[in-house]
Every structure is written in C-alpha cells, then in structure tokens.
Amino acid sequence: MSDLLRAEGIEKSFGATRVLRGVSLSVGTAEVVGLFGPNGAGKTVMANVLSGLIFPDRGRILFDGKEITRLPMDVRFRAGLTRTFQIPGPYPTLTVMESVLVARLCGDPGGGGKERSLQECEGEVESVLLRTGLFAQRFWPAAKLSQGCLRRLEFARAISCRPKLVLLDEVFSALSAKDEAELAGLMRSLHEDDGISFLLISHNPLLLSEMCGRVVAIQDGRVAWGGEARRPASGPARGDRR
Amino acid sequence: MRNTTGALALGAGLLLLLPLAGLDPFLLDVLTSGFLLASYVGSWDIVGGVAGQISLGHALFFGTATYSCALLTSLAGWPFAAAAVAALLLSTGAAAVVGTMSARLKGPFIALLTLALGELAHEVMIGQTFFSPRGAYSWGGEGGVPVALPWDAPSPWAAYYGALLFLFVSAWGMRRIALSREGLIWTAISGSELTARASGVDVARHKRRAFVAAGLFAGAAGVGFAAYVGRATTTDLSLELSFQAATFAAIGGRGTIAGPVLAALILHALFQGAGVPPAARVFLYALALLLVLRFFPAGVAGALRERLRARKMISGGAIR
C-alpha cells in the first residue's frame, strides 16, 4: 500500500515543553489508521501539525507525494487533507447548509482556480447533508445543534470536498451510543465506498481496534508502539450496547 | 419577510415624496447629509458587521475620499469628475493597505490598528497647511480644504434626490455583496476563523477583500459628501465619525446592512433635525446604544433576523 500521508521525525516544543519528540507515522491510500495515546501524550498536537494548524520545529510531512510541511491549513484542505476538531466551533450566525457550503465553495479541488457560485454548490451540499444525516436540520442555525449533530456537521464539513484523507480528532467522544454507531457507520461507508483514508485519533483502544486496520500509539511525545489493530475476540459491535 | 419589505418600500416612498410636501430647507439638508452618512455606516457594516473585523478608524477611507476631491480640484486643478475617480481609487487603496496590515491580526488588535491609523491621518491633516496655487490663500487645519465644484450652488432638491438615489444604489449594492458568495465567506470568518481555515478559506485574502469593498463604498460616500458640502474638513477623518459608524451599526444590527443604514438615517434625522447640540447627541447615541443592547443584543434588525430564522427553522424554509 502506497503512503498517502507520511510524517517523518516530527518535533514540536512550546517553550521549554517538548511535546513531540521525533514522531513518525504514515497513512496509506484507503487505509484507516488509529493514533492512540493517553491524555497529554501529544495526539492533538500531532493532529494540529499534520493538518497545518501549527508547523513543526523539525521533521517533514509528505502528502500525496508532495511536501506540505509549511503549507497552512486552508491549502491542505484544498489539497484533500481535511480534519475535524475535538471541540467543534460552529459559525454562530450561519445555518447548517451555509456552514458546509463555505467548505464546498472554498475547498473544491476541481475548481481549477475558478470560483464557484452558491447555486452551483447547493445541490452537492444537500447530498452531503443527506449522507451525514443533517438534511432535516439544514436550515437550523449551526449554534443550535446538539453535540451529536455538531459532530455530524464537522464530518460533513470535512468530507464536503471529497478529500483523500480525513483526520478525526476524538470525533466519537461524549456521544450517545446511537450517535456513535451512526457516525461509525458513516465513516465505514466513506472508507469502503469512496476510498477515503482516515487517521482516527482517540484515547479509546477498544474503539480504535474496531475501526482501524493499524494503530500507532504515542506516549510522552514518542511513538511507543505501532502495528496491526487487534480486534476483540468477541463482544457486541459498537453502538449495540443498549 | 413580506412585512419588512413592505415597510422598507413605504419608507422609500415617504422619502421620495417628502420634499414635495414643502419640507423646510434645514430639514432637507439634514436628510441629505443623513443619506450620505447612512451609506457610510453601511460601508462600515461590510467590514465590521458581515466580516466581523471591528474597525475603529473607518473615517480614514471616508476622509481620504473627501480630501482627495478637495486637494485634487483646488490645488491640482483637476476637474471634479476626474478627482472623484481618483478619490475612489485612493480610498480603496487605503483600505487595501489597512486590510493587508490587519489580515494576520484578530479582534481587539484590528480595532487598535485601525484606530491608530485613523487617528494618525486625522492628526496629520490637523497640522497640515496647503497653499493655493495662486498664493493668496492657505488652507488646511481644522478649517479644511475647499472642493472646486463645477456648479455654484446646487438646488437643495437636486442634492436631496441625488443623495437619496446614491443611498438606494449603494445600500442595494452592499446588501447584494453581503448575500453573495463572498459575503457568506466573510460571515464564516466572522463566526470562527479557525473553522473557516479548516474549511479551506484563505482568511487573510478574504479579510483584505472585505476591507477593500468597505473602503470603496466609504470612499463613494466621501465623494458624495465632498460634492454636497464643498469642503473637506478634519471632521471627515475624526474618531467621532469612526465611532458613529460602529455605534449606529450596533444599534441597527451588525451584519444586516439595512439595520445600520436605517439606524444612522433615523437617529441622525431625529437628533440633528430636532436641533440637539453635538455634545447632547453623543449622549443620546450612547443611551440608544445601551437600551438597544439591553433589549436586542444583536441590534434591532439582528433581532428581527433571529426571529425570522427561528420561524424558518420550524417551517423548514430557506433563510438567506
């Protein structure tokens, strides 16, 4: 499997605190990789570095064969590397439809530099909302959504431009079992039907073992372990724990 | 929505017919300057309301246009039409520079930068003296610079209808921009820069565009004001004028364009028309702001928009 995303020797410090100490990881085309670690291990900082929110002090990142180490987040989004946030930050005055429309308008990699109109994108956004289960709420102000719907909105925003790789930062935390099962189903269908790769960041080993083909564990800013995810021998599927 | 459109049409009809009812020349003057002020306040709302970049030096773009008209016509001897075009370009250019400088800044830092740049221009023009080409006069300072106009004394009616037409056209244009693709992106940046960046938005570029659009409309209002008053004074660059725009926008409802435009027009006409002295006007504006923010935190038009949204949320209709 060829590498879609490759991070090599990523180091990041904040003042005297060294958060990442030479982390290397890769995600292949149409692969689901888990990034595991306890709280404070550096998972979110790694996600921020990979998505371009912050730049590493050392190391390099390659995406789809091109070096993107110093490219900002919006350029990476347009290149097909998108992310969700652990704490969603919805636009308070925009509706669900408009929130996704912004991402569709600005992130369309097939635009060829030409800006697309609102009308051109509205139909495409509606199909994204149908798929993410937000169609009924499309005219709701984003700020009025429940936690589960906010996570769906993050998902919808991240997949709106048919990305190659999505970084999901603790996307399943603080969700009801029903929401968790539906989002997991959505992720599986995006992976299996659309061939989208995922880097799933979580401190929940059970979830990662069920969802991912491979897991990389980091601790104290270093890769502690990496290998094939070991699925539990038995037990109920996630979301069926009622 | 239909009620709002009806009320706006009724208001526009009233403004069209008012002079025919034998309106006092003083009130005609108050309304004419009110139309230009309202257009200027609408331009603030593009950058401060729709795009959420609180500018406290917006008079810089207005004053750049009035002073450009004055200096180019009186000192350089340009015809007014050419000076007006140059004034628009210069105010838009000034906005592009401010937009570029503030593109990487956020919240209070943008307010401080724009405040400092606006005050810098104000202080420079207070201390600057210009000598007329014939050598007989010196201009500048608080008294300002005259604008050489191609007409002697325009009829108050012509000025009234000209300014009203300008307000209609500029308000329509600003509203169209606010509802466009660009306006949607500005609203997203205003809501959350981080989410916007994570949605592929080049935040710095779109912020700069918001400043440029606002500078263009503020410059157009400045050209109109220069043509009407026939003089550029330091008041055109003053902190008071910048704060007035932000105050009227907060009262009317930031990000709605129509709200700030109407708030500026109504409050200006009420207080100026009633002959309230300037110091008392500032007090009344502050009082109006406090009352509105107490009962309608999003401004009057903002509260109306929220009610509309709530109704559409239930009925499942489109909002924009």
Distance between the termini of chain B: 11 Å
Q: What is the first-to-last residue Cα distance of chain A? A: 37 Å
Rg measurement of chain A, Å = 18 Å
Q: What share of residues of chain B is helical?
A: over 70%
Total strand segments of chain B: 4
Rg of chain B over CA atoms, rounded to whole Å, is 20 Å
Structural class of chain A: alpha/beta
Integer count of domains of chain B: 1
User: Helix and strand string of chain A, N-terminal first?
Assistant: EEEHEEHEHHHEHEHEE
Discrete helix count of chain B = 13
Percent strand of chain A equals 25-35%
Uncertain regions spanning at least 5 consecutive residues of chain A: 233-242
Query: What is the correct CATH architecture of chain A?
Result: 3-Layer(aba) Sandwich
Shape of chain A: globular
Name given to the CATH homologous superfamily of chain A: P-loop containing nucleotide triphosphate hydrolases
Q: Mean pLDDT across all residues of chain B, rounded?
A: 90
Percent helix of chain A = 25-40%
Compact description:
The complex is a heterodimer of chains A (242) and B (320). Chain A has 242 residues and is of the alpha/beta class.
